[in-house]
Task: structure prediction
Amino acid sequence: MGLGPMAVAAEHRNRGVGTALVEAGLEELRRLGAHGVVVVGHPAYYPRFGFSPGEQWHIASEYDVPADVFMVMEIHPGALLGVSGTVKYHEAFGNA
Result:
């Protein structure tokens, strides 16, 4: 699964809106039974939720992005053990 692009309007930042959105998304992934989730995002923001660079998991993005902005998180501990490869996104992401 992938956590989609997220942005919070400047006048609403630092009020917990982004945190609430990420936590709601992660909770929905848990409810759906997902094993893991990837995100392309700010390397100082997403680790607070448990994300770490994909290269630590031997998982890469199909897009040419800096290694520190492509991150992976296990939804359930051990769920990604032995998983490796390249994440392929839905074609809609390529049209942006």
Summary: The chain has one domain: 10-94. The mean pLDDT is 93.
